[in-house]
Specification:
six-stranded parallel sheet, 2 domains, binds NADP nicotinamide-adenine-dinucleotide phosphate, Rossmann fold
Length: 283
């Protein structure tokens, strides 16, 4: 039997409608949630991401300010911009699009963002808050994956979740979020000797690797939930995930497609975090 699809576009629409409603309520109190997006250089993929984020803000009644700088902007100038935005009461969220040009220390820039405005959830204070279960901003991609599980009313308590990938922005925070919901969590990475032995035990698999066909049907327990974070190109140049979708959908119970799965959820959670930042500033 074919798996049920967790539709990231449909879920995003519902969540964005709720964001728009909350934004309207805030506006009635004289506060328009504002996101500042900083783009340095002209990386084509970054330009597309930034455009999508700005458009998503506008569609949901959030104000967005796009600041574009040439690739030779100095690190000091960028840090000064971030400092100014930290002080700007009309800006509730600050996003610095990565990657930055090599002469700029991305870590230093992210750490310069006020944790109260860190809507990407990349600051060490945000990572630490997630680690110890304190309020903070969760990184948008794994947060979106959690919302997808919530949307199918999936009970994580007592389940085994296997996360493939251990990056600071996806794999590690994903594992912590699943742990917080009482799943038993295994994290796999490039040094895991027998990935299949791990994934075959999983009730939930999150693939966040960046390689096509990392997860195939023979690696999945029947009925498992499969969340595909990967963004790759197939031989025809079309967007695809890490999961062999056609094969795995015949075994899994639930599966997220690529495109139309985690991708739209990532931007949606950026809107949610920005709105949340504005609400917290008004509290
Ligand atoms: P990343 O920093 O490159 O991390 C990839 C992880 O995969 C690493 O931990 C690596 O292990 C592990 N890995 C590599 N080969 C492996 C293998 N054969 N078996 C098991 N693990 C393996 O990537 P990322 O930033 O986390 O992103 C992962 C993917 O998600 C990419 O395709 C990215 O484009 C996509 N992504 C999508 C969204 C979205 O909105 N949909 C958002 C963010 C990222 P080591 O640590 O040992 O090297």
């Amino acid at each position: 039997m074919s798996a049920q699809i967790i539709d990231g576009n449909a879920l995003s629409q519902r969540l964005r409608a709720a964001v728009a409603q909350r934004a309207t309520a805030l506006k009635a109190r004289g506060i328009q949630p504002g996101l500042a997006v900083i783009l340095v250089g002209n990386n084509p993929a970054s330009q597309v991401y930034v455009r999508n984020k700005v458009k998503a803000c506008e569609d949901s009644g959030l104000r967005s300010v796009l600041e574009k700088y040439d690739a030779d902007l100095s690190e000091a100038a960028l840090l000064a911009r971030v400092a100014a935005l930290n002080q700007d009461p009309s800006i509730h969220g600050i996003l610095v699009q990565l990657p930055l040009p090599v002469h700029i220390d991305a870590h230093k820039v992210i750490e310069a963002i006020s944790p109260a405005k860190d809507v990407d959830g990349f600051h060490v204070a945000s990572a630490g808050a997630l680690m110890v279960g304190q309020p903070g901003f969760w990184p948008c991609t794994p947060y979106g994956c959690m919302k997808m599980l919530e949307s199918i009313a999936y009970e994580l308590k007592g389940k085994h979740a296997v996360v493939i990938g251990r990056s600071n922005i996806v794999g590690k925070p994903m594992a912590l979020m699943l742990l917080q919901k009482n799943a038993t969590v295994t994290i796999c990475h490039s040094g895991t000797p027998d990935l299949k032995a791990m994934t075959l035990q999983a009730d939930v698999i999150v693939a966040a690797v960046g390689k096509r066909n990392v997860l195939t049907a023979d690696m999945v327990k029947p009925g498992a939930v499969v969340i595909d974070v990967g963004m790759n190109r197939n031989d025809e140049g079309k967007l695809c995930g890490d999961v062999d979708f056609q094969g795995v959908r015949e075994v899994a119970g639930w599966i997220t497609p690529v495109p139309g799965g985690v991708g739209p959820m990532t931007i949606t959670m950026l809107l949610v975090n920005t709105l949340e930042a504005a609400e917290r500033s008004a509290a």
